[in-house]
Amino acid sequence: MQTNISETYQQTPLGQQANDILRSCVHCGFCNATCPTYQLLGDELDGPRGRIYLIKQILEGNPATEKTKQHLDRCLNCLNCETTCPSGVQYHHLLEIGQSLATKTVTLAWHKRLLRQAILTIMPYPKRFQLFVNIGLFFKFLLPASLAKLLPKDHQQTIFFSAELKQKSKQQSKQRAQRKILLLQGCVHNAISPDIHQKTAQVLDKLGIEVLNEVDPGCCGALSHHIQAESKTVQSIKHNIDAWSQAIEQGVEAIISNASGCGVMVKDYPRLVEKLLGKDSSYYLRAVKIAAMTQDVSEVLANEDLSVLQLGTEYKNIAYHPPCSLQHGQHLPEIVEQILASMGATLLPVQDKHLCCGSAGSYSLFNPEISEQLKENKLENLQKQGADVIATANIGCLHHLQTDAKIPVKHWLQLIQ
Description:
53% of the residues lie in helices and 7% in strands. By secondary structure, the protein is α/β, with parallel strands linked by helices.
């Protein structure tokens, strides 16, 4: 693609990076064939190729408009286009640049500014989010149905989680464990589905691996990063690198996540630290080490003898939804299915399993109509083969699908005994 970057950006690292990415695009359109928003809306500007042209226009000196920002913000950041692209275009890096530039020149509508601030104030903080959810559950009968369905379904489990499940975790046998890993707690797990962490610890304990929990858990930074809140993203990344570096010094062999959305973010820390703090920052080398040590929990299990584990008998037929952050972000498209199949699971075929479910972090809050339609399409494909349960590997996907699913939606680790 030919470019004519304006003098404003020509000599900047941002402009040079964007120019390189733009020139690698041959505008073939293969990306549109697998883009969820393009397939849904049929608008060239709501596909990767169209968004690339919009970003190119900004970099060539045309100011971003509200419409420009709307099309850019409608991107799910699912990375499906990058999996499809024959030219290896780093689309999500270019999108970051475009969204950042558009955010600086276009003012969001007041209700979106309010929602953005609420997300940044509540969701990255586990205790605040837990309190927020508990209040919502208490007053659920007063809420409109559209809001009430967003609350976790396991009410009692959510409200009374903390003391009971943490005590159970402490009681797990550690006598056999010669290996230690650090389990990322995330910011919303304990409020939405706390037993996923407990199940993770139980499964790894049977494999002789002791799970250490974070001392001061918080958001990995993905929530703020995806809504262009750079200062908050920096704050989260620095906090985590400081905390996790101490765990590394204590001898953990890996940092694992059972939420693929968090995993893909942490694995991207070196690039983000270089971009936001500089390569000469004291955080850069530690970010490189942390990223190298970070694994999805499926990567750990894939290299272990799983003969000591077995599948539960409650669900015989499983429809698996691979999160975009696992299949496209971490390039682990079938790892969970291979693990479950090796344990004797019956995995049903799922049409269009490569497409996003519409959760995409906070996307469902900012773009509810698109998100709901994608969810409806995904649930139709997941449920039409007669599955007993839907399994997935990301807390966001799990909760999003759970709101309207007719069958149980579980984290895949919850299916293992």
